[in-house]
Amino acid sequence: MSIDLSMSWLIALYIFMLAAFTGHEVISRVPSILHTPLMSGSNFIHGIVVVGALHALFNASSPVEQVIGFVGVLLGAGNAAGGYVVTDRMLAMFKPSATKPAGKE
Amino acid sequence: MMQWVIELSGFAAAVLFILGLKRMSSPVTALRGIVLAGIGMVVAVVASFGYLADVSEAARPHRLANLLLAILALALGIGWAWRGGKKVPVTGMPQMVALYNGMGGGAAAAVAAAELLGPRLDSLTQVVVTALGALIGSISLAGSVIAWAKLDGRIKQAWRFRGQSLFNALVFLAALALGALVASGVVGHGGQALFFVAALAFGVLMTLPIGGADMPVVISLYNAFTGLAVALEGYALHNPALMIAGMVVGSAGTLLTALMAKAMNRSLANVLFSRFGDGGGASQA
């Protein structure tokens, strides 16, 4: 086992529970005009999976593991970068100085 | 020391993600929200190169090759997605979100595949959680690609046949059964590959019959799926940042999906399974 961090499943359950309530709380009462940008924004946030993929790639010791790790990092990086650009462009439409009307999604 | 830096950056990233998402939920502060989350992402990704400092014994000789592969994968992934995101017209954005979301699901599935392949998982709970994340991530990947193809006009017709629901349910059960076999460790690499194929097949089959107009709701659902898969893989990797970011998205995405379905005057079940009864025609409207 390469990771020396021990985490009991109960602590994990607590983390999941609190994070789930956080996500729910942050999104509730959001105006419907922001639904699409928020979907895109949360799409960006789960791009953090690239960190896990990097961990997998760095610990790869066979060609198969290297291919899997490479694909994981490639996809994860695309998720994060693409999610950021699209969200940024969507939200730019909400700028007061923007020429485009705000309702357009 | 390196472990400490990685963990602290992960913590900072989680805080910045939640703050960013909070700001994105109001039109006034929305633009600063994504910048905040972006800073968190850069911090976490840069710090994760510290993993190189203590890789497993078996991977030590491959360190340089793996580093080069990582840089190449990052450059290609970021370059391609950044260009695509900048070039796409405003009307084409939803399908790009679908595509990027599918990539995230695929990345989660890849992490799961690497964990299942390697000797790193140390308890049954971890193996089961990893397999579950693989299942959800694969469904999200395949489903998102179909959603992208539909919105992009590459698949024009909703594909439906008699007994489809039953057939899909059987494919899902097959994927679950294979997942159980993988988790119990009785099948080899071939069985693992078959498990991923079954999960991907279910993602395709589940999405094909849904009409194009319903795709935004479906994309939002798969967004929540990817978040969940990332959270589960975070547990497999002992990485709280992935667990928190993934679960926040999983829960926020589920709520968003429900809100979007409600805005269309539909229930989520109606969107997903409306090919039966008169709802099927409505989904094309």
UniProtKB/TrEMBL annotation, chain A:
Residue stretches making up the NAD(P) transhydrogenase alpha subunit C-terminal domain: 13-95
Main location class: membrane
GO biological process: NADPH regeneration
Keyword tags: Cell inner membrane, Cell membrane, Membrane, NAD, NADP, Translocase, Transmembrane, Transmembrane helix
Top-level enzyme category: translocase
GO cellular component: a single term: plasma membrane
Membrane topology, from the record: Multi-pass membrane protein
Pfam families: PNTB_4TM
Catalytically driven reaction(s): NAD(+) + NADPH + H(+)(in) = NADH + NADP(+) + H(+)(out)
Function: The transhydrogenation between NADH and NADP is coupled to respiration and ATP hydrolysis and functions as a proton pump across the membrane.
Entry-linked PANTHER family: NAD(P) TRANSHYDROGENASE, PROTON-TRANSLOCATING NAD(P)(+) TRANSHYDROGENASE
Designated name of the protein: proton-translocating NAD(P)(+) transhydrogenase
